[in-house]
Amino acid sequence: MNPFQYARADDAADALRRGAISGAAYLGGGTNLVDLMRETIARPDQLIDVTGLPATIAETDDGGLLIDGAVRNTALAEHSAVRKRYPVLSRAILAGASAQIRNMATVGGNLLQRTRCTYFYDAEGARCNKRTPGSGCDAREGFNRIHAVLGASDACVATHPSDMCVALAALDATVHVEGAEGQRTIPFADLHRLPGDQPDRDTVLRDGELITAIALPALPTGARSAYRKVRDRASYAFALVSVAAVLQLEGDRVADVRIAFGGVAHKPWRATKAEAALRGQTITQQAVLDAAAAEFAEARPLRDNAFKPALAARTLAAVLTDLARGEAA
Asked: Residue 329 pLDDT > 90, yes or no?
């Protein structure tokens, strides 16, 4: 681990002033950043502790919620309004990590998790364009069971690890950030990048920008939501495939549906093609499988992960069938 300086921010303005220094990084719970520093993958010269910033969950005028970036994951998952109105989010957080990690991790930090690709973490023995741009990608021809089948590039086939982010993508969340150029909001679907030829850039955040809050819009009356995660073991493994879904029915037909997949791409994957195929339809297993086939029509599986499109389709069918029956509301 490289030597670094530590400072605790008094408020957002203080954090931004300190974060403008080259080589600075914001520190929330540290559940990912500290691991990266131990492996010398992240080498910040200065850590700015932002855990003392506001950490509240507030109702908004439109019936949604505004969640400060310093809110702990446990507090978000256990909040009564989240459990009642956004169960997809609560369940995603609970599926993501042990209680000890959830107690430390912050909402803002969760959004900035880096991939758990084995080759990314092997700083001594593996080539990784995400870690060292231009060095190559050993995952493409290596053990790639957990890797991407959608949106990947020749430069990178890594997947995004967060469960919470998959739920936020399905909920049409908005990210509030602040930086040297002022405040701005980013639709959640636009926050994370596909790798292209710059896989070392995970998000569209500018240097020194700080995630200050996440906004959740109100869901339509009667909307049902759920999260399901498929993994190699039940004890907090990263997803092979996960599904976050929000379903609104009129009678037995789909008035609206929002779907996001985890474990299949460099970012939480909003399944807009599957959504379009399902609107106006009755939820049947075949209808959902056909919609998933449309979403994964351009999938590019690797040697070890060709099972993912079919697994994602079956998982989506199970989630939406349960929601349509009211069994996972």
From this structure: no
